[in-house]
Design goal:
5-stranded parallel beta sheet, 10 helices, alpha/beta
Length: 311
Amino acid sequence: MTVVPDRRKLSVLLVMPETALARTVETALRDAGFEPGAITRAMGLHDSIEILRTRPISTCLVHDTLQDDLSVFDFIDRALKVEPAPPIIVLASTNDIGLDEECQRRGASFFIDLRTLSGNELERAIRYSVGHARQANDLKYSAVHDKLTGLLNRTAFLQRLEEALYRSHRSESSVCVACIDLQKFEVVNEQYGHDTGDLVLQAIAHRLKSTIRRTDVVARFGSDEFGCLIENFGADGNAVEVIKKVMLGFKVPVRVEGEAFDIIAAAGIAMHPKHGDTPDMVIHIADSALTRARTQAAETSQSAYVFAEES
């Protein structure tokens, strides 16, 4: 179900040469309830792209003629590459079906004939476009992120790993993967309930993300399973130091709702190219090392990590 956005919280970028028609559009926006401060003007492609990169814009209204003699197609192609890409509504002085179809094929959300423009029509088009764009972004986000922790999911992690292996082939560098397992975590759920268990998992996810470097990746594979991807670390020993820092984090109890939880973790670590050339192979080797780390953690009642060459 599409959530209808609050018009008062929307910002509009109007990309249109300075003409009487542009002033008509601005008047229609104000008549529809948009405050003047919510409307930003740009004349052409280059200044509008700079605005998109530096300001939060909810939607773009772009005329089919730009001041710098570039086409509306150029604008659509460039604007949709900005992250996050706003929905684009094309304003035209003609009801050209071919132009309409080509704009939508390139990714525009709406096409409006300015000859019949009204404030209500413009307001509905803006809210419809923004609502659907937000819904699409939410679906895109949920497809690659774990709902509970906000970390990447296993599918996205494997994609990132594949990209990292490709980069390592070109630069002849190494990639490190750690598979991390929480030991006997089901006890937390059994004694304190799944709601508390979820809060503990969220706290662990936050700790993992804050422990690794900003360029590294952490993901949640399953209920109590996580993964770390480390690259651009130079010598293998530098990757070891990152893993040590991650595991040291488990020496500090996780505090949730006034309770302190001592969480024991096991980690298996594999290196590319030493242990494999594909994402599946590297993960498999790391999982094999994780098996030994679990045994060590069970015997010592302390967090443990094992590198693949030791397994």
